[in-house]
């Protein structure tokens, strides 16, 4: 028996490694030879790397009785998305971009609510404007899911805005974009054709199978696996119509060697990009991004003595997380403002 440590902090929702088998089909598209691919360094043509992330927050739950005596759910929430722009060659300092909180009044579509403006007693504290957004049904998690969905949509829009266009046809000769966006988590449904790479920090799904996963523990720093292709939502041939049209390229990269006491996949990250429908080839641009990904992520990977989610929680991501938390303000003070608002509104009969 061998016991190894999962390096992910225990206060996170899940560990870094669970590896539930992917139920669908995964195809070879780059090569039939399953072996490590060395990094080729960062080309001069790549002028900018932008790291995009988002952060949601629930601030207060609401219960609303309608005129018929039925109970409905709502919530005050907030989310923020932002970016860090950096030069992959280290020629300038990193810069924060578009870090701004947006506040949401999420409500069941059965009970429409008006926008809520929370005015402080001290004018210097600022006004909190909550924009109403409806969700379907009466599920307990409905408000939280709505805030999360709005954040993901905003992340996608920001990534698409900042990334260079990317040629994905088989005959295209353009091989590398000038601006590459690294987006925390998988790439979102829709919106292919841009240089957006999703980086997945946890290994919760096994896309390789028992006969191939062993290569991950053999990868040296900066090396990657060959590129594979899969279809989002594939459950062995059963998937929703929306998911069934979406395909992804994916590969794995080693950022660093794990300490002896951690499991052998501790320094591994999975990357993914949009794939053309039913493609049997890898576009030159995607392969170029994969080839530089190892060298780039080695430079951006965090260190264990500074970040408990190292190395997968990238250095720019950690800085961005701090900026996003500040932009939403003190959760305690916001909660006090909401309580005062509800007390005043209830007394006026606005929210009942």
From TrEMBL:
Protein name (record): Nuclease
NurA domain ranges (all copies): 47-326
Coiled-coil region(s): none
């Amino acid at each position: 028996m061998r016991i190894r440590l999962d390096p992910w902090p225990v206060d996170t929702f899940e560990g870094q490694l669970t590896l539930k088998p992917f139920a669908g089909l995964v195809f070879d598209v780059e090569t039939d030879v399953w072996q490590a691919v060395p990094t080729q360094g960062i080309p001069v043509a790549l002028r900018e790397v932008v790291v995009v992330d988002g952060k949601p927050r629930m601030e207060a739950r609401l219960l609303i009785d309608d005129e018929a005596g039925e109970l409905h759910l709502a919530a005050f929430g907030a989310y923020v998305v932002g970016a860090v722009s950096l030069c992959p060659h280290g020629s300038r300092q990193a810069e924060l971009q578009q870090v701004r909180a947006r506040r949401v009044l999420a409500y069941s579509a059965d009970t429409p609510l008006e926008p809520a403006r929370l005015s402080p007693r001290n004018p210097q504290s600022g006004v909190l404007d909550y924009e109403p957004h409806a969700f379907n049904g009466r599920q307990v998690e409905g408000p939280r899911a709505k805030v999360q969905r709005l954040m993901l949509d905003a992340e996608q829009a920001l990534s698409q805005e900042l990334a260079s266009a990317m040629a994905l046809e088989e005959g295209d000769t353009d091989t590398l974009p000038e601006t590459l966006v690294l987006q925390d988590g998988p790439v979102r449904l829709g919106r292919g054709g841009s240089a957006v790479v999703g980086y997945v920090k946890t290994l919760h799904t096994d896309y390789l199978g028992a006969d191939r996963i062993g290569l991950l523990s053999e990868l040296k720093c900066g090396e990657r696996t060959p590129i594979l292709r899969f279809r989002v939502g594939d459950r062995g041939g059963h998937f929703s119509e929306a998911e069934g049209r979406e395909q992804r390229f994916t590969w794995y990269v080693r950022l660093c060697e794990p300490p002896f006491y951690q499991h052998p996949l501790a320094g591994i990250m999975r990357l993914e990009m949009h794939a053309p429908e039913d493609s049997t080839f890898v576009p030159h641009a995607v392969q170029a991004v994969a080839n530089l990904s190892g060298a780039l992520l080695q430079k951006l990977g965090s260190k264990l003595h500074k970040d408990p989610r190292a190395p997968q929680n990238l250095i720019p991501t950690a800085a961005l997380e701090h900026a996003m938390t500040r932009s939403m303000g003190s959760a305690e003070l916001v909660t006090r403002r909401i309580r005062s608002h509800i007390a005043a509104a209830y007394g006026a009969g606005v929210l009942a």
